Amino acid sequence: MSSTDAKKDGRKKAKVDGATETLEVNNLGISWFAPFTVLSTSSISFFRSLRENLRVDNLVSTDQFHFTRKSQLAIGQESSRVVENDLPGLVCNDLCNGKENICIPVTNEIDVPPVAPEKFEYLSSIEVAKNFVIPASAEGCNCKGKCTNTRTCSCARLNGSDFPYVRKAGGGRLFEPKAVVFECGPNCGCGPKCVNRTSQQGLKYRLEVYKTPDKGWAVRSWDFIPSGGYVCEYTGVLMKTSELDNVSMNDYFFEIDCEHTMNGIGVREKRLGEVPISNGLGAGEDGGDKLLVESDPDYCIDAGSSGNVARFINHSCEPNLFVQCVLSSHHDVKLARIVLFASDDIPPMQELTYDYGYELDSVVGADGKVKELACHCGTADCRKRLY
Asked: Of 182, 186, 185, 142, which Cα lies nearest the Cα of 159?
């Protein structure tokens, strides 16, 4: 394409490491870069459509295109080198302080002057409360390198004689929500890149924590997230729910209610698949295999003073993420890891949300009175109350 054609088509040329690239910027500071050498007719049509619509939800991510954000001051400049400090309202360069494989910036364009979230300790994985005993690691599969054979892999047999993840470029994708996902663990013979370790392989998408006008802090992704894509784990301190201090004042805790999902208890929709659990706290007194039955959650993850990016993900009555219970190191479903996956294709810059699963009138304050909290998700089927 000649420089004249590029000018007519509304794109600008920029130099990055000596390579000529196209640059598209919309009114939200969203830009796309792609080497001219990879631009096909369909790619050019896509850029034209993007420019005409100026809609973020038209964006998709591929191996050829790179998505990033720029401040309004940077829009229109010839340089395509984006500096994170140019993000509008930036209050923190990296929420996780290098504990994740991807930086998580925090922005606040609501408050004047902009303020950062209250300080907390960032945990990239679950921390166990003092005097809390984790079950022994389960027996693992004998696979080597990567698990590929569903007939010989013992972890696949736990998942209904199949692997729960579909191998795709960029990482595994959960085929469908399941009662429980059994991932490979510390006693398995496969390596860290095995697709059945998808939720153990770190963040895959660039996340941003940002301030909203009416919902406090929220989370969005700079990248397109495909349906079934792993987003993050909910981390914090694993402990007994009965030992949680000031529960009525703590907005950052997650009751491990996997049994509710397995059995369709309360507002949880029962998922396909029966889950036999052996020799764990969830097994019967005789230690034999049995299906877990209804009970109140005995354990929770407290993210009040320590946790990760998941603590900032808001509730929605029509969420784009779903909660998946995952077992890897042990097989006690009462202590399952809480992992969030995309329930549908999620375009860049769309807020990430999941259903908190509260039943109405289920939260009682310290004074013994039922607490009510309005829902501000703004969806068409909003229940108007979170609890």
From this structure: 182
